[in-house]
Specification:
Shape: elongated
Distance between the termini: 198 Å
Number of strands: 36
Helix content: 25-40%
Radius of gyration: 56 Å
Largest sheet: 4 strands, antiparallel
Number of helices: 13
Strand order of the largest sheet: 22-30-29-23
Structural class: alpha+beta
Strand content: 25-35%
């Protein structure tokens, strides 16, 4: 009985002691708990947080070493934003002996009291500080890649080598560093550095090509054979290394994920040079001219045809581009032969067999200046051959009208007056040519009547044509499958244009002329002229009534009308004009 009572007393005493112990350390850390060498028993958590040091360096055995290739950097945890998380450690210390199980709690409290309980070091990081440090470190590590390049000094070519670049991968490097600080292992960290390959790793091929291009002159040649009776002459155009340098181009092209440098020549500059050379080489073909022999029905050449030639500029440019760096430095230019539209050897194939039409105008009692101009202009068309489908232009075949071309001054009709001009009389040649085309039934594409009636071209009225370089022209088209031969010249008192070809069976008739809206010419005009002796009166223009004149050309084929065409002429009224001399009288 006494023993049981004693046991009860002991139990009650122990329970009181435990209760007193728990009451004594309510809100405080139990005895025996320590952290970072500090005894924390009896302290409140907030006091513990103030007590524990935040500095971390003294607790590392070795500094942290960062390494890249042969370079090293030493860094402290503080520089990387590391510190002790004192709040977390104080909370962990307070939680010792305060679990869910009473027995476990008492066991933990007793164990801490007898043997001690150390709280693990808990590290916190300020990543902004760490990343800022690594960003500064990147400025020492990062190195841009350098592309290989070419340097041209005078005629010397130098190649600069490429270099691999480096880029510090900050996030990946931090992931390597963080565990070492958190576990206090220290040691070395190999920085995570990404290689940056150059975009242009090598230019040795471009250098070799460039050296060949400018190492010696480039010679362009053409074998010029002017005629079979003379030996051919090799013509040369030399591009010096300096000329080639002025045309150089450098182009970057993608090749297997890298960039390759290609050296070439500026196409626009090369084309400009080829155009210049083309002008030196080119020779237009010369059409043969003939006369028709009425007795034999054959053509007799009066101007021999000649083949022309032209440089194929596009082919020449491509050829030079392809061979600019070749070992052989001589390039034969591609020159194309151009056959004349009318070749002498094709005379029997032209279909010129008979006279198909003719135009005439009077050629009597003209002053020598006007007669000279007419003969000269007519000679420009004599022997001319017009191929099928070709548009005949009077002005184009006439050529330049000037004193240098051999023409003299004579009266020429302008819109408001008749006055002296070089080439006076050419309109008679145009009128005669127009009439031959009219009677041949050839489509007239352009024709202009004179400003007023010209009596010397009548009859018929309304069948004249005027021309004036370069705007006013006479044009017709050869709409037959046969060539047309023009013979033009003066025969006694007549200017004649004859068209020889092969008849296609069409006949041409004319209706009219129909005269309408006649307007009187008005009184004469008298003008003083000091170059004439006083009392002299000289008539320089005749009076003509104005009128509208219409002519119809009727074209028949096989006896049937296939076309009826209108030719309209409006002539102005024209007053007579007299020059009255006011100069000194001629002494008798």
């Amino acid at each position: 009985m006494a023993l049981a009572f004693l046991l009860v007393v002991l139990i009650l005493a122990s329970a009181s002691t435990v209760a007193f112990y728990e009451y004594l350390f309510q809100g405080r850390i139990y005895p025996g708990v320590n952290a970072l060498g500090f005894e924390l028993g009896g302290l409140r958590p907030e006091d513990t947080e103030r007590l524990l040091p935040q500095e971390i360096e003294p607790y590392l055995k070795e500094p942290l070493i960062l390494r890249h290739e042969d370079r090293t950097w030493f860094v402290t945890p503080k520089e990387l934003g590391a510190r002790f998380d004192t709040r977390a450690m104080a909370t962990a210390a307070y939680q010792v002996g305060r679990g869910e199980s009473l027995l476990d709690n008492l066991s933990d409290q007793l164990h801490a009291l007898r043997f001690g309980r150390s709280i693990e070091r808990i590290i916190a990081f300020d990543e902004d500080v760490a990343l800022s440090y690594l960003s500064q470190l990147a400025s020492q590590v990062d190195s841009p890649a350098r592309d290989a390049g070419l340097i041209l000094r005078d005629s010397e070519v130098e190649a600069t080598p490429s270099r691999v670049g480096w880029k510090l991968e900050i996030a990946a490097t931090w992931e390597r560093i963080r565990p070492l600080i958190a576990t206090f292992r220290g040691g070395e960290v190999e920085l995570v550095v990404r290689e940056i390959p150059p975009l242009i790793p090598d230019v040795s091929e471009a250098k070799a090509r460039l050296e060949r291009m400018i190492g010696s002159p480039l010679i362009l040649t053409y074998l010029d054979a002017e005629g079979s009776s003379q030996p051919a002459v090799k013509r040369r155009w030399i591009l010096s290394p300096t000329d080639i340098v002025d045309m150089l181009t450098f182009r970057q092209v993608q090749c297997d994920g890298q960039i390759k440098v290609e050296v070439g020549l500026d196409r626009s500059k090369l084309e400009a040079l080829m155009q210049q050379i083309a002008h030196e080489i080119e020779r237009p073909p010369v059409r043969a001219r003939f006369e028709f022999d009425e007795a034999t029905g054959k053509l007799k050449p009066i101007v021999h045809s000649r083949w022309g030639r032209a440089l194929d500029v596009e082919a020449a440019v491509r050829l030079i581009e392809d061979k600019a760096a070749a070992e052989g430095r001589e390039i034969s230019l591609p020159v194309l032969p151009i056959k004349p539209l009318v070749a002498e050897e094709d005379a029997d194939k032209l279909g010129i067999k008979e006279l198909v039409s003719e135009g005439t105008t009077s050629f009597t009692n003209w002053p020598k200046e006007r007669a000279h101009n007419i003969r000269l202009a007519a000679s420009k068309f004599h022997g001319l051959v017009i191929p099928p489908g070709e548009v005949f232009s009077f002005n184009e075949n006439l050529g330049e009208v000037s004193k240098e071309a051999g023409y003299e001054e004579w009266y020429t009709i302008f819109p408001e007056e008749t006055r002296m001009a070089v080439g006076g009389g050419i309109c008679q040649v145009a009128t005669t040519c127009f009439r031959a085309a009219f009677w041949g039934g050839y489509p007239i594409l352009e024709r202009h009547p004179h400003a007023y009636r010209v009596y010397r071209y009548e009859p018929p009225l309304g069948l004249d044509a005027t021309v004036f370089q370069p705007r006013i022209d006479l044009k017709f088209v050869n709409d037959t499958p046969y060539h047309i031969l023009i013979e033009a010249g003066v025969e006694k008192d007549t200017l004649v244009f004859r068209f020889y070809s092969t008849s296609i069976g069409r006949k041409v008739e004319m209706e009219g002329p129909i005269v309408e809206n006649e307007v009187p010419h008005g009184p004469p005009i008298y003008e003083e002229d000091p170059t004439l002796p006083k009392g002299t009166i000289k008539q320089v223009e005749r009076a003509r009534n104005g009128m509208d004149v219409t002519i119809y050309r009727v074209i028949k084929q096989g006896g049937k009308v296939v076309k009826r065409e209108k030719f309209f002429s409006r002539y102005k009224p024209w007053r007579a004009r007299y020059l009255v001399g006011t100069g000194e009288a001629v002494q008798e």
